[in-house]
Amino acid sequence: MITLRLSTLVPVLVFVSAGLFAAAAVSPFDPLVGYLGSRYETTSEADKTVLAETLGFGDAWYQHYGHWIRALCGGELGTSRSYRQPVAQVLTDRLPWTMLLVTVGMSVAVVVAVTVGVWTGIRRGGVVDRATAAACVAVQGLPPFVLSLAAIAVFAVGLGWLPPAGSTDAGTDADVEQVTRHLLLPATVLAISQLPWLLLAVRESVSTNRGEDFVAGAVARGIDAKTVTRCHIVPVSLAPFVTILGVRLPEIVVGAVLVEEVFAWPGIAGAFTRSAQDLDMPLLAVLTVGATAAVMLGSLLADIACVLLDPRVRADG
User: Fold this and answer.
1) Domain identity same for 70 and 100
2) How far apart are alpha carbons 150 and 121 in whole angstroms?
3) What is the CATH number of the domain that holds 172?
4) Is the domain of 200 the same as that of 55?
5) 98 and 163 share a domain?
6) Cα–Cα distance between 294 and 253 in angstroms, integer?
7) How buried is residue 265: exposed, middle or buried, by Cβ count under 10 Å (0-12/13-18/19+)?
8) Looking at the structure, do residues 111 and 80 belong to the same domain, yes or no?
9) What single string gives the DSSP state of each residue in 226-285?
10) In total, how many domains does the chain have?
């Protein structure tokens, strides 16, 4: 299984990257707008034509793609026209901020989902279980940007407890206290946006596994309820949870992008949006291919973890 999944990685990435360059060729956006910025309106048509020819904007998409592939194979990511710096530098500056947001937000979501999911799954049908299920159904219908705007309106504008945007206050160095205060709101919103699906998956899995034969056998051997839950029900119930986590990786990526944009978090989202608007292909291609590879590898790791967690999956395989 692992070999098969890995063997499809490169063909998929080639297809995605080629499709991206082909789609850019028919895009309504003019790359000269992004390149010239505010100078676009004051630049003559003759100068625009010469500049477009010099930069190769008139070349066919497959020529651009060929140049990019050859540079990539040589270990060169190219230079971003939007940021006027190497793509590697853009990634170095912004990727750690995105990783920080996603790591903190998803860690909170996973801990809460497992804790509350196990609790409600064991006590299925109780008041807490019904209230939790209702809350999950309500939250999962709200897009991340709506949750972000609501959080800003309540906790930043209304109550003034937390800053509404950025990673630090204006003119302030990025120390631990500053980053923590600014991270709290976007990380919480990201966690809440992903929590319903994860929590309901754990709850359903725990509730189902309570009635399995291996649980009945453990109870019949006189093992106490806490040990049965901790050592028998929870490990097996986490397998579907991990699978859901892997399957929903694309939505996690999209959710993180939306949250970053609303909170003006200095991560990859801003670079993604700007590179798409400016048709900054060296940067856009690297970000798109990187996100696709991360989703595919994450899904593979989730499948491997599922096999390790649930002996029944290994037996079926």
Assistant:
1) no
2) 30
3) 1.10.3720.10
4) no
5) yes
6) 10
7) buried
8) no
9) HHHIIIIIHHHHHHHHHHHHHHTHHHHHHHHHHHHHHHT-SSHHHHHHHHHHHT-HHHHH
10) 2
Q: Give the model's pLDDT for residue 225.
A: 64
The number of CA neighbours under 13 Å toward the Cβ of 45 is: 0
CA distances from 98 to 93, 195, 271, 315 (A): 10, 19, 11, 38
Domain that holds residue 126: 94-316
Cα 283 from Cα 92, distance rounded (Å): 12
Give the phi and the psi of residue 95 in degrees, each rounded to 5: -60, -40
Residue 152 predicted with pLDDT over 90: yes
Residue pair 157/176 in contact (Cβ under 8 Å)? The answer is no
The sign one gets for the Cα dihedral 167, 169, 174, 175 is negative
Do 78 and 149 lie in a common domain? no
> Which helix (H) or strand (E) covers residue 80, if one does?
strand 79-80
Q: What is the rounded CA–CA span in Å between residue 42 and residue 52?
A: 16
Instruction: Please give the Cα distance from 146 to 252 (Å, whole number).
Output: 15
**Cα dihedral 257→258→263→269 (10° resolution):** 30
pTM, two decimals, is 0.79
Q: Say yes or no to pLDDT of 311 above 60.
A: no
The shares of helix, strand and coil residues in the chain, as percent rounded to the nearest 5, are 80, 0, 20
Tell me the two tokens of residue 120. 């409600």
The span from the first CA to the last CA of the chain, in angstroms, equals 9
Residue from 93, 56, 32, 88 nearest 283 by CA? 88
Write out the two tokens for 117: 């999911």
Q: Which residues contact 155 (CB under 8 A, 6 or more apart)?
A: 161, 162, 185
Instruction: Judge if 65 and 135 occupy the same domain.
Output: no
The arithmetic mean of pLDDT across residues 144-156, rounded, is 90
* 236 shares a domain with 148: yes
